[in-house]
Amino acid sequence: MKSRLIHIIIFLLSVSAAFAQGEMRTIDSLKQAVASQSGREKVETMLELSWNLTDISFEEGVAAGDQSAAIAHESNYSDLEAKSYYRNGYLFLYHNDLDLSKEYLHKSLKLYKQLDDKVFLFEVYWCLALGDMRMGDLDSAAYYYDKAIDMAEATGDKVAKIDALDNLGMVYYEQGNWDDARKCYEDGYQIAKEEGDSLLMARNEFNLSVLYSELGEWQNSMPIYSRLIPFFSRVKDYPSLTVANKNMGLIYEKYYINYDSALFYFNRAVELADSIGSGWLLSESMNEIGNVLSLQGQYEEAMKKFDESLTIAQASSYPMGQIAALAGLGEVHYNKGDYSRSLDCFLQCRELSERYSIGIYNTIIRSALIRNYASLGRNEKLDEELNAFIENYESLSFQNAGFVDENNNIFKNVSDISRQYDELLAKSDRQNRQMRSYRLAFFGLLAIVFSVLSVLLLRHLRKKR
Description:
- By secondary structure, this protein is mainly alpha-helical.
- The protein is 87% helix and 0% strand.
- Helix 14 runs parallel beside helix 16 (319-335) and helix 19 runs parallel beside helix 23.
């Protein structure tokens, strides 16, 4: 067995060496061609050389791209100059150097606009949008995806349009803009249906099922997941399969209250996310496991999962995962009675959500801050959050479906907050008068919230996580 293992290792090493030698032969051949060529042919060969060099040395590949752009500029080959800038922008995007990527892409964009090359304009807009999504600039990402959709329509590329619609829907989803997200997914599904593309239909139907889950319409989403999980496994669409397992776990966690089944799907999602090296999916799946462990009262284990998820999300530059992990830690600390640490977690959540324009957690964060400020007796901050909550309750109530569950949390914690208020009331007459005003404001808010909840429950008959 030992000798067989050695033979296998030697074979793999020899294959890798042969592959590397093949790459070097290709690069040497291209270098020789560049030396003997001139004009457009020379620039085109240099572009190919740039692409091949990147597999060996990223820096040399980028340098070759810069050189091809310089030669193209001197020779007035605007299309090749634009392509050189685009290539380098693309390389930096997937090397996660987003500032340099944007710099090159904007140079390319300027030239392609002059050339009116709509095919490459789509590609440039797509990359700019993806870079802004990674940087958390969702408004800018939405703008560039809109532009990409325009280019796809102009060229008649329906598959490209579906892809851009799907990603624009994701931007709206992260902003908590449910109606626009739904329209993007429905439009994409309709185009895929007209084209008769079963895979694209499945992916758009899947996007709709994700949105249904977010809106608490699990009756609509669960049959879709049940049908698509084996389909995605069969076609080896592992990212979609990972999310489908994660969201099926959410249904068992939130609606069937079957934690064993929920953990089965969440753990499967973790395995899949890890196997494909997807940091953001791994972070989200671990957050869900942390939530279930927290619900079961296993706070120490839950904190480990949230901490691990936070580390992964930070390494992946994924602000949504960071916010969710911090919110999970905040809930655990609150349930353990450590209100100061809970408050710190939710303040970090707010800072991240404001920095990256992520509106999906606004109501959850404000509800948590109200609970913590009340529990800590920080009256000025409590008053500030209550006033903001009351002023914005109508828009907040429809901002995201999490409003119902999060404000149910306020009702659930009323007795604790009231008890802590009573302790504060006994301290002095001055505090007594002051705290009465806060109690009136707080329970007045609850009455308003209860009215809104009643309307929501009657109109939608649904729950949301």
